[in-house]
Amino acid sequence: MPATSKRILLVDDEQLVRDVCSELLSIEGYQVDTASDGLEALSMINKAGYDLVVLDVNMPKLDGIDFYRKVARERADLDGRFLFITGDLYGEGETLEFFCKGASVLKKPFTRKDFLDSIRQILSRPAPPIAPQ
Q: I need a labelling partner for 68 at 20 to 30 A (CA). Which of 5, 40, 60, 96 fits?
């Protein structure tokens, strides 16, 4: 098991998806926190430093895209550090436009290899600079 200090926030309203993805990431040595919707994740995002956020697009209370928009305004350190997982890549209007702008997206169902490769690829990018306060 590779040792890593990378911390990942996994947000999905499906318990099975959270359990399987969390287990895969833990086996790879990542520290993983989970949330069942965007509102729960918002309360967690500033309590711990995350290197990556993996999130479902369609969730109750606060969907993945709206969560992303709220976090992106305040957390420049997470720029380019989101992986969207979704069963519907062909959404309508605003969702489709969002994905066409180059968001990192993995379509459900995905393989273990594709999931972990996507995680590694995003984490291998240089970290965004942290703006001075």
A: 5
